[in-house]
Automatic annotation (TrEMBL):
<keyword id="KW-0808">Transferase</keyword>
<dbReference type="InterPro" id="IPR011712">
    <property type="entry name" value="Sig_transdc_His_kin_sub3_dim/P"/>
</dbReference>
<dbReference type="GO" id="GO:0016301">
    <property type="term" value="F:kinase activity"/>
</dbReference>
<feature type="domain" description="Signal transduction histidine kinase subgroup 3 dimerisation and phosphoacceptor">
    <location>
        <begin position="51"/>
        <end position="118"/>
    </location>
</feature>
<feature type="signal peptide">
    <location>
        <begin position="1"/>
        <end position="19"/>
    </location>
</feature>
<keyword id="KW-0597">Phosphoprotein</keyword>
<keyword id="KW-0067">ATP-binding</keyword>
<keyword id="KW-0732">Signal</keyword>
<protein>
    <recommendedName>
        <fullName>histidine kinase</fullName>
        <ecNumber>2.7.13.3</ecNumber>
    </recommendedName>
</protein>
<dbReference type="Pfam" id="PF02518">
    <property type="entry name" value="HATPase_c"/>
</dbReference>
<dbReference type="InterPro" id="IPR050482">
    <property type="entry name" value="Sensor_HK_TwoCompSys"/>
</dbReference>
<dbReference type="InterPro" id="IPR036890">
    <property type="entry name" value="HATPase_C_sf"/>
</dbReference>
<dbReference type="Pfam" id="PF07730">
    <property type="entry name" value="HisKA_3"/>
</dbReference>
<dbReference type="InterPro" id="IPR003594">
    <property type="entry name" value="HATPase_dom"/>
</dbReference>
<keyword id="KW-0902">Two-component regulatory system</keyword>
<feature type="domain" description="Histidine kinase/HSP90-like ATPase">
    <location>
        <begin position="154"/>
        <end position="246"/>
    </location>
</feature>
<keyword id="KW-0547">Nucleotide-binding</keyword>
C-alpha cells in the first residue's frame, strides 16, 4: 500500500513539475505578446491624438480665421451695396471664390474623419469603387447581411481595402484579384491577387511598425481585430483581416438607426 501511495505521490510530483515547466516555458512568449499588445495600443493612441491635434489646428488656426474673414467681407459687401452699388460685383465674385475654397477645405477635413463614399454608397459599393480598374479582372463579393455594421468597423474595412488595392496597383502586376467580405459574428476581409508578390519593404521586412502593412494591422487593432499579410514571389498576395462587430465602446444609441453617424 505504501509503495502504491509513494508511486502515486511521485507521479503527482512529476506531473506538477512538468506543468510548472510548461508554464514557465510559455512565460517569455506571453511577455512578448503582452509587450507587443501594449506597444500597439500606444501607437494607436499616439496616432489618434496626433490626428485630433491636426484637426484642432485645422479648425482653430485654419477654418476659424477663414470664416471670420468671410464675415468681415460680407460686412464690406453690405456697406458697399448701400453706398456704391456699382462696386459690389467684384466683391461678391471674390467672396464666392473664397467660399468655394472653404467648402473644399471642410470636405477634406470630413474625409479624414470618415470616407464620404461610405455614407454615399455603402460599404460594398464603396469597396467596388476602390477596386475598379486595379487589374484586368476584379471580383468583389459580400457574403452575409450588409446592414447595420458599426461605423468604426466600416471605416477600418474601407481603409484596409484601400491600402490593399493601392498595393495591387503599385506592386502586384496582377491579372486577377478577389475581394471577399463575409459576415458572421465578425466581419472577415480577404483581398487576394495573382501578381508577383510584394517587395520586402512593402511586405514588412523593412523597419518594423512602418508602412502600409503596419497601418492595416493598426486599423484592425483599433476595433479589436487583426490583420495578416502573406505573399510569395510569383504567386501573389493575400491580405486577411478579422474585425469584431461587437466593437468596444460602440452603442447603437450613439450611432442612430442603421448604425450610421
Amino acid at each position: 500500500m505504501r509503495s502504491v501511495l509513494a508511486r502515486a505521490a511521485g507521479l503527482a510530483g512529476a506531473f506538477a513539475a512538468g506543468a510548472a515547466a510548461a508554464h514557465l516555458a510559455h512565460i517569455p512568449r506571453l511577455t512578448r505578446l503582452t509587450t507587443d499588445l501594449q506597444r500597439s495600443r500606444e501607437r494607436i493612441l499616439a496616432t489618434r491624438e496626433e490626428e485630433r491635434r491636426r484637426l484642432r489646428h485645422d479648425l482653430h488656426d485654419g477654418l476659424g480665421p477663414t470664416l471670420a474673414s468671410l464675415a468681415m467681407s460680407l460686412d464690406t459687401a453690405r456697406l458697399t451695396l448701400a453706398g456704391k452699388p456699382e462696386r459690389i460685383e467684384p466683391l461678391l465674385s471674390e467672396l464666392r471664390d473664397r467660399l468655394a475654397t472653404t467648402v473644399g477645405e471642410i470636405r477634406e477635413m470630413a474625409h479624414g474623419l470618415r470616407p464620404p463614399a461610405l455614407d454615399d454608397l455603402g460599404l460594398l459599393a464603396a469597396v467596388e469603387a476602390l477596386a475598379e480598374g486595379c487589374c484586368e479582372r476584379v471580383d468583389v463579393r459580400f457574403e452575409g447581411d450588409q446592414a447595420d455594421l458599426p461605423a468604426a468597423v466600416e471605416v477600418a474595412a474601407y481603409r484596409i481595402v484601400e491600402e490593399s488595392v493601392e498595393n495591387i496597383r503599385k506592386h502586384a502586376r496582377a491579372g486577377t484579384a478577389l475581394l471577399l467580405l463575409s459576415r458572421d459574428a465578425d466581419l472577415h476581409i480577404m483581398i487576394a491577387d495573382s501578381g508577383v508578390g510584394l517587395p520586402d519593404a512593402v511586405r514588412g521586412a523593412g523597419p518594423p511598425h512602418t508602412g502600409g502593412m503596419a497601418r492595416m494591422r493598426e486599423w484592425a487593432a483599433e476595433v479589436g481585430g487583426g490583420c495578416s499579410v502573406t505573399s510569395r514571389p510569383g504567386v501573389g498576395t493575400i491580405v486577411s483581416a478579422r474585425l469584431p462587430l461587437a466593437v468596444p465602446g460602440y452603442h447603437r444609441a450613439f450611432t442612430g438607426e442603421g448604425g450610421q453617424t
